Amino acid sequence: MTLTLDYSKALEKVEDLAYIKHLALASKEILEEKSGAGADFLGWTKLPEDYDQEEFSRIKEAAKKIKGQSQALLVIGIGGSYLGAKAAISALTNNFHNEMSGSDDLKIYFAGQNLSQSYLIDLYNLLKDQDFSINVISKSGTTTEPAIAFRIFKELLEEKYGDQAKDRIYATTDKEKGALRDLAVKEGYQTFVVPDDIGGRYSVLTAVGLLPMACAGIDIDQMMEGAKAAALKYSNPKFEENDALLYAAIRNALNRQGKDIELMVSYTPELFYFSQWWIQLFGESEGKDGKGLFPAAGSFTTDLHSMGQMIQDGRRNLFETVVLVSKADKDLTIKEDQDNLDGLNYLAGKTLSEINKKAFEGTYQAHVDGRVPNLLVEIERLDAYNLGYLFYFFQKACGYSAYMLGVNPFNQPGVEKYKANMFKLLGKPGY
Ligand code: PA5
């Protein structure tokens, strides 16, 4: 079993969901028959079984070329054009990947995910003396944040490499429209396609996520294999046997009981950006028409020392979804100290992963005792296969969950409001 969902601390028995079972099954049918709102954006459901093999090979070739030509890759994108790759690279590479990179490894940096002048200046100064390539990613090809970052770093590449700069730029965008597509065609950049029927936050398993991952040395074949296994598993029509459907139904039930915040919790900082990816997935898919659970993240035990009090003892309007990795790939053991001045000898011989597990068990029980329902999503180890599986699990659950709420999971009309105001303030023509 790649993933287990333990809902015993959120629900007494699965029969308690009988009153919404029909709604969950109807949402599954709507998604699978492509009969709901936003049905033109369901390409991700079949992607792991049916992806463009030619594009996949080009991704691997490009990754090889980038590694050969550069010390660093700058990934430019925002939202769904950035968080999937960031999540995978954080989860699957060394915590200090850029500092540890050997001569064959690429350092990976991100830009275009904010408008901070200090971030861009610092990054510019860091990259100006390194050989680097750019993967600029924007499905629409018109998003302001990545467009600004790309203008700045494209100029730097052109200063450094002249006409050869275009050989270091890889654009991932719509197959025919948008400013980035036009620019790529005119300048002759190598391009990768974000399929028409896959929206930004569901695009991690397309070139959007896969090219940066391949550049970071992640096994993208295994990632797709994991997602494929999940696609098969969560096509199960039996409500009680389909964990993606059960997860969607339990969140819906908890929401009806007044729980309007879901906190995704992990016990390893490698999963911090996975939580950020999940926040965007659920937040942007569900938060519309005055509905939706507010998705938040906790990185434990770090945040137990900041948010722990609120979770244990504050308003009882939240539940937790803990993502747990059962097996550690590396570990260290606490040694005996002769003087024991720090009083830690009671831990001697124990591994850090055992201690972290006890922190989880203690916290889990404390929060449940404090009337915080807890869901547990457990995978065996943090590798490309399991992460591909996890990406797909949450995407499928999110589709089900949004349809259960009665909202379109695949649009984001609310995001336009800030842009319109900003453009007006900046004097953009037409605003
Ligand atoms: O999920 C989405 O569609 C959005 O979050 C987009 O990914 C984000 O706004 C970036 O858009 P684009 O890839 O068009 O630059």
Descriptive report:
- By secondary structure, the protein is of the alpha/beta class.
- It has 16 helices and ten strands.
- The chain has helices spanning 18-32, 43-46, 53-69, 83-92, 97-100, 117-127, 144-161, 179-187, 207-215, 220-233, 243-256, 272-286, 308-313, 352-369, 384-405, 415-426; strands at residues 3-9, 72-76, 107-111, 132-138, 169-173, 190-193, 261-266, 294-299, 318-325, 374-379.
- The strands form two sheets. The chain has a five-stranded mixed sheet, sandwiched between helices. Strands 3-2-4-5-6 form a five-stranded parallel sheet, sandwiched between helices.
- It is globular and about 65 Å long.
- 43% of the residues are buried.
- The mean pLDDT is 96.
- The structure holds 5-phosphoarabinonic acid (PA5).
- Residues 78-81, 138-140, 143, 146, 199-201, 284, 412 line the site of 5-phosphoarabinonic acid.
